[in-house]
Design goal:
Layout (H helix, E strand, L loop, with lengths): L1 H17 L5 E18 L2 H7 L3 E4 L1 E16 H4 L7 E22 L12 E21 L4 E12 L5 E6 L2 H8 L5 E4 L4 H6 L3 E16 L2 E13 L9 H8 L17 E16 L2
């Protein structure tokens, strides 16, 4: 068994020394496992329209696949340098599709007397969501290590995301507005809201990837990444049950799901891992 492991290590080392991307077009197919922590914020004026006292973030997950196309400017050809440490720089673009998560919680004081407070937690899961961007990577150690930075965005295609609404005090919600939680349902947007709310979020993504050659012109790519998303939907995209709960708050009687909230943001911080294959087209 020991001899087999030694032989496998020698073969792997030889493959690594024989095959490394040095220049030209590179395309890759990746699968991303993504966690997401939301960070909602809203101005005082818009908060007063809802009767909500504060928003808090939540944590969820999403999955997506990506296709990436780039060009590697190899260190030997373009920078006149040995590629053992600095292997070059690449410019790339990517396009992906998958799921999206936006979750948050809030609380308010019910107008009805003698009703306690309750935290309302809302999870929205979108599918599909389009993911796109452009960026650059620094290739190091004979193209084994890649450090990348990209800017891009996500575009929500889904018109009816899955909604899960729950609370830490279901009795208070039922007594306050007659809504029984938890509720798992599909969010059906009005025609006006469907056309009006902002579907585009902007993002900045940082990646660290390990590139392991397998055969000539093909390598396995393993990566870690973090991404900050800035999103201003302009409206509180939630179900009619949430509208009813908010209208039961002190100060929220005039709120509807079509009440515009220009200062409302639900930014998020993604963190995840990716696995895929890269191909050198040159």
């Amino acid at each position: 068994m020991k001899n087999v492991l030694i032989l496998a290590s020698i073969i792997l080392i030889n493959i690594s020394s024989l095959y490394s991307f040095t220049n030209g077009f590179i395309w890759a197919a990746k699968f991303n496992f993504n966690g997401s922590a939301t960070m909602p914020s809203i101005g005082k004026e818009d908060l007063n329209k809802t009767g909500i006292e504060y928003f808090k973030g939540s944590v969820g997950y999403s999955l997506n696949g990506e296709l990436e196309l780039g060009y590697l400017f190899g260190s030997e050809r373009w920078f006149n340098m040995d590629n053992k440490k600095f292997s070059g720089m690449s410019l790339f673009g990517y396009l992906g599709i998958g799921t999206g998560y936006l979750g948050q919680s809030f609380t308010g004081t019910f107008s009805k007397e003698n009703v306690g407070k309750a935290a309302i937690l809302v999870d929205l899961n979108y599918a599909p969501v389009l993911d796109f961007g452009i960026g650059t990577k620094v290739h190091l150690l004979e193209d084994r290590l890649m450090i990348g930075l990209s800017i891009g965005g996500k575009f929500i295609i889904d018109n009816s995301p899955e909604s899960y609404v729950y609370t830490d005090n279901s009795a208070a919600v039922n007594d306050g507005v007659g809504v029984s939680l938890p509720i798992l349902s599909e969010l059906i947007m009005s025609k006006n809201l469907n056309q009006s709310f902002n579907r585009l979020m902007l993002s900045v993504k940082f990646t660290i990837e390990y590139n392991q050659p397998i055969v000539e012109n093909v390598s396995l790519v393993l990566g870690l990444y973090t991404r900050f998303n800035m999103y201003n939907p302009q409206y509180l995209v939630m179900t009619k049950d949430i509208e009813k709960i908010i209208q039961g708050y002190v100060g929220g009687q005039n709120f509807t799901l079509e009440t515009k909230l220009p200062s409302y943001y639900i930014n998020s911080l993604d963190f995840g891992a990716s696995i895929g294959f890269a191909f050198n087209a040159s």
